[in-house]
Automatic annotation (TrEMBL):
Keywords: Kinase, Transferase
Protein name listed in UniProt: K+-sensing histidine kinase KdpD
Family annotation (InterPro entries): Histidine_kinase_KdpD, Rossmann-like_a/b/a_fold
Highest rank taxon of the organism: Bacteria
GO cellular component: plasma membrane
Record organism: Planococcus koreensis
GO MF annotation list: phosphorelay sensor kinase activity
Length: 229
């Protein structure tokens, strides 16, 4: 049952994506909404259709729905099968709901990585200058090797998107290359590395929020390779 909020000039949006950090973000959002006595919304964005979620991800979604009901959230919003960057989807929802405060999880990137490659938060600040952001820290795993920095690799595909490429976990006729995606530990976003073979040589490119950071290497290989679809 939704709680009756007394203050409507503030509204909070919690952005959850994948993994155990989502519950921590929702708890933080509920505490803030209770303090401000204002509406609470929860948003999940995913590039895959909802009916293609694996068992683990579906379990997380069900748990988040339970928390939304328990805390009296105004709405639990799922934007699945999204081809747009997450920052643009969050901005659209924030505009529609008149959100004033947004809660997100901190990614596992180091300060130097953020300086040289940019950060997801900076993308959000450009898209949503009217809202305040609360970044909840995520405990980082100790990095003893390259393998410990990333989760277990999963099969995915590259899809051309304007002048760049994005990863897709569903094979379609638009897919141009098949490879393995290694997601960074400690992030709710699709940040990590994508590895693929071309002419018996292994290539590795960085991924940030579903998109290839530097598409030049990919372009030089893939545009000469027939589609796998």
């Amino acid at each position: 049952m939704k709680k009756i909020r007394g203050r409507m000039d503030e509204s909070i949006l919690v952005c959850v994506f994948y993994g155990p950090n989502g519950e921590r973000l929702i708890n933080r959002g509920n505490k803030l909404a209770s303090m401000l006595d204002c509406p609470l919304y929860i948003l999940m964005v995913d590039s895959r259709p909802f009916d293609e979620f694996d068992t683990e991800k579906s379990a997380y979604v069900e748990r988040w729905k339970e928390l939304a009901e328990e805390y009296g959230a105004e709405d639990f919003i799922i934007r699945d099968n999204e081809s747009r960057p997450s920052a643009k989807v969050i901005a659209e929802v924030s505009h529609d709901l008149n959100i004033t405060q947004i809660i997100i999880g901190q990614t596992a990137r180091s300060r130097w990585e953020e300086i040289t490659k940019g950060s997801f938060l900076n993308s959000l600040l450009r898209e949503i200058p009217f809202a305040d952001f609360h970044v909840v820290s995520v405990e980082r795993s100790i990095k003893g090797s390259d393998h410990e920095e990333f989760e277990k690799g999963v099969r995915c595909y590259l899809v051309k998107d304007a002048d760049t490429y994005k990863i897709s976990f569903t094979q379609t006729k638009e897919c141009q290359y098949e490879g393995i995606f290694f997601k960074e530990i400690g992030t709710d976003f699709n940040n990590g590395i994508f590895k693929f073979m071309h002419n018996s040589k292994l290539y590795q490119v960085e991924v940030e929020d579903d998109y290839i950071v530097d598409p030049m290497l990919v372009r030089s290989c893939i545009e000469k390779t027939p589609s796998i679809g």
